[in-house]
Amino acid sequence: MNKLVGAGDVIAQLRDGMTIGIGGWGPRRKPMALVRELLRSPLRDLTVVAYGGADVGMLCAAGKVRKLIFAFVSLDFIPLEPYFRAARQSGALEVMEIDEGLLLLGLKAAAMRIPFIPTRTGLGTDVIKHNPDIRLVDSPYDERQWLAMPALPLDAALLHVDRADARGVCQVKGPDLYMDDVFARAASRTYVSCDELVEPQFFEQDEEARYVFWERAETTGVVHLPCGAHPSSCAPLYGFDVKHFREYTASAKEADGWAKYYERYIACSEVEYLQRVGGEAAVKKLPLPVF
Amino acid sequence: MTDTALVDAIICAASEAWRNDGEVLATGIGIVPRLAASLAKLTCNPDLMMTDSEAWMVAEPVPLGPRGDYVMRRESHMGFARIFDNVWGGKRHAMVGPTQMDRYGQANISMIGTDYRKPKVQMLGVRGFPGNSFNHANSFFIPNHGTKVFVAGEVDMVASVGYNPARLARGWRLDDIDIRLVLTNLCVMDFGGPDHQLQLRSLHAGVTLEQVQQATGFPLHVPASVPSTPAPTAEQLALLARLDPHGLRAGVFGA
Predict the structure, then answer these.
(1) Is A227 within 8 Å of chain B by CB?
(2) Considering the entire predicted model, what is its pTM?
(3) What angle do CA B157, B163, B166 make, to 5 degrees?
(4) Which of A7, A56, B11, B202 has its CA 20 to 30 A from that of A119?
């Protein structure tokens, strides 16, 4: 079985209006090379589901997002994502703003093929007021009302991992999965970029298989993209690129900042991109963040 | 009072939030809450559980900032998915920093403005506030006590539930909500007043009652006697020096 594809092939399989889940968390292990490929495409009217960082900011800046399903959009060490802010403050962005845990429950419900999961999370908040699709339900077992978090099925999920083989066995050795396993399960099709492409035998060594968190049947396509998470991190291989994120954030303060950023870092091949951010060796040396 | 003396007193007062919690996960988001939780674990409640602010539960608090040759003492994995499992189970007490808070203790970090579809100021989003607020105990640290934070009326986006009876779903009671301490640059408060009214617990050195009331957009309950926030002990200061070797806490008020 061979699921190897190019980034262009992945984007070619997406359609306008689709619901796309993006793995990672804030500035961490985002499938940024796939996002850049999406930015280069004519795709539009997307519903994006993410624990958002620059992936969401860039897609907003490029006008790709019709609706955003999110709990936060942040670069963490730069708390406020400038292009997401601009999109929200312009009134152009339709949103489903929910709790981090509700987002997880919605993906889990989709993964479990059930319409909703009951929870106390979100009760009493404006999350209910601003999302009339989120209903309260009576419990068959007690006298209380519960919030029924609807399933969030994804047409496609885009993820980045440390290693994968051509069959779609994926490995994440960083300290956190960031719900990527649930994104994979909630999606009809899951496309994974990997820093390193390995032979299937790799997973037979020592404890390597212990770091595989979803079955290969959940992986539709594998794209080999070294440093494909840059400028986000892919711990333990590399940390996030603070300097690049500062440049990206600063660009939002200029009148045609996004156009300039796009010209320099998006309107090129990924090989050129890597050169423009200092090369593969420099990315691999980016230090892991200290908290 | 210098900024450092003030922030040290606030951290020590904030650490009291976890004193009687027993074995729960103490989460402090931001420099002051994190140091307060760390101090609590090293002084009044050694049973507290704590993370490295990333993905591991640790046996002792991790110092702030670059750590040199310090080696973390990991005790279990604690990635985000597991944090949610812990949140939903209720064995946690978080201290966080909202942008707005109202008379009910409802808090906001999402957006500012009257039109939700077109915010005047977009901030982070509700993050984990809805879940935290209805699943476990919560305390708050607010470094700039003023009427823009402690607003009249309700906060612009209720991200965090408070003691507002009008917002309870059927079958739920105000006792299902558990807000503990609210600490600011002026004072320490809680929601222990009549009908869960915000009440003053202590004033920081040099701060007057009038100052606090003027900086709060709704009436505050003032008990018969209001003590001063205690000054840190020598032991607490020594621990803070160890937990914050680069002195990052001195910049909390923007100095």
Answers:
(1) no
(2) 0.97
(3) 75
(4) A56
Reply yes or no on whether the pLDDT at A145 is more than 70. Answer: yes
**Tens-digit pLDDT profile for residues A101-138:** 999 999 999 999 999 999 999 999 999 999 999 999 99
Of A79, A123, A130, the CB nearest to B169: A123
A10-37: pLDDT as tens digits: 999 999 999 999 999 999 999 999 999 9
**Which CATH number is A7-98+153-283's, of 3.30.160.60, 3.40.1080.10, 3.40.190.10, 3.40.50.300?**
3.40.1080.10
Residue A193 C-alpha, separation from nearest chain B C-alpha, in angstroms:
22
Q: Is B160 on the interface with A (CB under 8 A)?
A: yes
* SS3 category, A194: strand
pLDDT score for A291: 84
Amino acid letter, A204: E
pLDDT given at position B179: 98
Query: Which residues of chain B carry a pLDDT beneath 70?
Result: 255
B3-248, CATH topology level: Glutaconate Coenzyme A-transferase (3.40.1080)
